[in-house]
């Protein structure tokens, strides 16, 4: 698999995990009265979805099929979210979880960008967009801690 496809599939899977996680947290917080927190969830969901769609298109335009996150990983993530929010659904606790997720995304994106620095400009641009988005997310969630 070439570097372009490696990075694009990473972006695809990262943004897929972001949309799935935030969608689940939106469901968990549906009764919350903290509208600012919910607005940030929806805003980040929409941006993850845009990045997901763009990466999917770029993969297909290159004649490849995107690799979805495997079902086991999705189920494991779903269970972990449920366990971590069983006793604490506060914006502070959820923000902490989201900051940890964004930190992993930042590390993984940085590794991929460094590893495949010879990838096409449009691919690296999308990877850097995801990286900056993850950094911004961290800062945005800090105000809810």
Please characterize this protein's 3D structure:
79% of the residues lie in helices and 0% in strands. It has one domain: Ferritin, core subunit, four-helix bundle (Ferritin). 29% of the residues are buried. The chain is elongated. It has 145 residues and is an all-alpha fold. Helix 1 runs antiparallel to helix 2 and helix 2 packs antiparallel against helix 5. The protein has 5 helices and no strands.
Quick synopsis:
By secondary structure, this protein is mainly alpha-helical. It contains 5 helices and no strands. Helix 1 packs parallel to helix 3 (71-84), helix 1 packs parallel to helix 5 and helix 4 runs antiparallel to helix 5.
Q: Topology, pairings included?
A:
Layout: H1 3-28, H2 35-61, H3 71-84, H4 91-115, H5 121-142
Helix pairs in contact: 1-2, 1-3, 1-4, 1-5, 2-5, 4-5
Number of strands: 0
Quickly give the structural class. mainly alpha
Summed over residues and divided by their number, the pLDDT gives a mean of: 94
Major sheet attributes? none
Specify the overall morphology.
elongated
Q: Share of helix among residues?
A: over 70%
What's the CATH class, please?
A: Mainly Alpha
Oligomer state equals: single chain
Briefly note the CATH topology name. Answer: Ferritin
Question: Which regions contain 5 or more consecutive residues with pLDDT less than 50?
Answer: none
Number of helices: 5
Architecture, CATH level 2?
Up-down Bundle
């Amino acid at each position: 698999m070439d570097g372009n496809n490696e990075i694009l599939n990473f972006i695809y899977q990262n943004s897929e995990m972001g949309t799935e996680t935030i969608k689940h947290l939106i469901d968990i917080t549906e009764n919350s009265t903290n509208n600012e927190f919910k607005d940030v969830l929806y805003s980040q969901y929409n941006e993850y979805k845009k990045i997901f769609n763009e990466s999917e298109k770029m993969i297909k335009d290159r004649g490849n099929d995107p690799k979805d996150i495997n079902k086991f990983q999705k189920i494991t993530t779903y269970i972990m979210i449920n366990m971590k929010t069983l006793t604490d659904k506060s914006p502070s606790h959820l923000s902490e979880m989201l900051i940890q997720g964004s930190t992993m995304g930042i590390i993984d994106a940085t590794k991929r960008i460094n590893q495949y620095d010879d990838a096409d400009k449009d691919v690296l641009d999308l990877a850097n967009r995801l990286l900056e988005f993850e950094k911004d997310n961290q800062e945005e969630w800090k105000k809810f801690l």
